[in-house]
Design goal:
This protein is an alpha/beta fold. It contains 31 helices and 24 strands.
Length: 776
Amino acid sequence: MELPLGGRRIVDLTLGISGAYCAKLLSGAGAEVVKVEPHGGDPLRRWSCADTVAAGDDGALFQSLHHGHRAVVTDDGTADDELLAGADVLLTDRFDAAAVSARHPHLVVTAITPWGLEGPYRDRPATELVIQAESGCLAAHGRADRPPFQCGGQITEWVTGVYAAVATAAALRSPGGRLVDVSWLDIANLTGTNFGDLFDSLRGRPLLDTVARSMETPSIEPTLDGYVGFNTNTRQQFEDFTILIDRLDLLDDPQWPLLGTRVTRWDEWNAIVHEWTTKHTTAEIVERAAALRIPCAPVADAPELIAIDHVVERGVFVDDPTGSFRVPRRPWTIDGEPAPPPAPAPRLGEHTGQIAPRPAPASPPAPASGLPLEGIRVVDLTAWWAGPSAAGMLAALGADVVHVESTKRPDGMRMAGGMFFHLPNWWERSGFFLQANTNKRDLTLDLSTPRGQELALELIQGADVVIENFTPRVLASFGLGWDVIHAASPSTILVRMPAFGLTGPWRDRPGFAQTMEQVTGLAWLTGHVDDQPRIQRGPCDPNGGMHATFATLMALAHRDRTGTGCFVEAPMFEAALNVAAELTIEYTAYGTRLTREGNRSPHAAPQNVYASAESERWLAVSIATDAQWQGLCRTVGRTDWAADPRFSTHRGRRTHQDELDDAIAAWAAERTVGDAVAALVAEGVPAGDTVDPRRASEQPQLAARRFFESVEHPVIGPHLTPGLPFRYSGVDHWIRRHAPVLGEHNDEILAALGVDDAERALLTERGVIGTRPVGL
């Protein structure tokens, strides 16, 4: 099969993970990627977490991100106009992106930067920790009696690469060029705060008299031989959990099913759970939980992960061309066609002088305006967050998306509004649903009934894309398998997002973001050093959604060439493995078993969050370069550090980080966060405030970027909602329509299918359609 982006040329000027992962996704779809570097090369070439890359070699992480790319060297690491003239996309992490876009109007210029191209923080130094802090992500994680902790594994940088790839691939569908402005900060807020600001708005903005951070339970729990991960997103899953631990009596107390009760009675609850879990092995618990349909997985580090039977049977990991380490395969397929085996990564400057010039467009089109998916129609059968976020991205980019749910089984994410049970129509008050379903229309259909199935198939016959995230057996049980859809509508694309894929021993298991974080190693990298692994609570849902969105865009490109619809598989598990890849790469390449470090990181030292002179205000500091180290020494008045050979290298600072932490903590404790950040930033040091996620819309950079958009909703009134974490030239705002209330567009959609008033009344009477959840 010809790959969807075959013939496209991508010029990559970026350094680091975000741009490289974006380029990797594009090249995995067939694009030619030309990496342009200065003579010293991308610092990632010399990187490994254990500092074990031999002189003259390229690190395994760099190689994995650049398989099959070509590499050229220029004096300043920029691309000349001749190379850009024949390119389709420029990936850059520099602030001259707008000027390049103006000079080459045919190009999609995707700028990937920590803060975005404009705004008061644009020129501030940044690292992953500082971005998580300023976005509200960091302050959302942890117990109230301990400092907050970061999401480990450089997760923001990886997921930024996915969003950048989606934004770029969508922009390629427009006839002209476009400037795309992707911000790590926006992505950290969108994926790591659980919409804390939106929920706070829904609560009426009460006084912030409690800490923002919290943890789920049951979640990761100790077993006889390790750790096991649960999540109980629904009441049914919690009830089944009480059966699992032989404590059905807990349901006699109506408070235990409430997460708030389990958090406030944390020690009592954990004693109950651990009394059972510590008497059983992880494997035994996973097997018993799977039989009860409880989302559950072993909490794995690298050696455990690569040995899991499901991973082995599906062939998820493949060998690097050098044979020296293993990497996760491309996390999507079209019509079951596997990705080509990875090609070798280029050596520094290997293709200098060998890139054949391509002619510039004879008549460059005007820069694109409007939305690239206008005219595309999507039937959205997804629920919860990952699937709706994928369909929501398609809707934001211009597609007409119909979200299908039923009154018997509404989208489960509506139930996150249960904290507002005392208010009318509480199921319309979930921040998750309100964000992930903007710009959509809503239709209720009971797909367990023959008429519901008939109407769904009629709706599908007019659609370009159908997207769903049921467990594998469900779609066929509704009479809507691929064979039925393809026969009825040969041009329609079916995108399936099963948690663990359509084959393998885990195929029928349910899975949520928490499950993915537990099993892929992301939880192993998250939490305090003296504590157990902790889940990241969020990123794997939108990460899975954006990988599926990217695969959908590739399927549309494939259909543009063939005229025929196709079948896409985009498992959430494999999407998560791709952004957790460093864990496995480090182990298989160097034998390094990465683990959690609290707020420290292999990539920066010293790095941590420090209590300030203000109660519950934490200062984030992160030193990634020698120049930043010198700036820190000047700021805290420790010129002796600058001359101390123990601290002259990154490795030395990592070795002596306890000593450095103590001194920085003493300095921070005497200052307000604002004063400390201002002093550090003035010296070029990455530093930030740990913003409360409940007030993230007030963060100056997020406000300047207009990341939060005002939306008027018929039930809850006006509210600020996060939009997309990137800006498009020619597009002023992303949210054009509020998230729909249940069944809001039944009459409109069914009338277009020829269902008259009388039949709609009959369908309502029989419960096939409706506007209120059954039993509520």
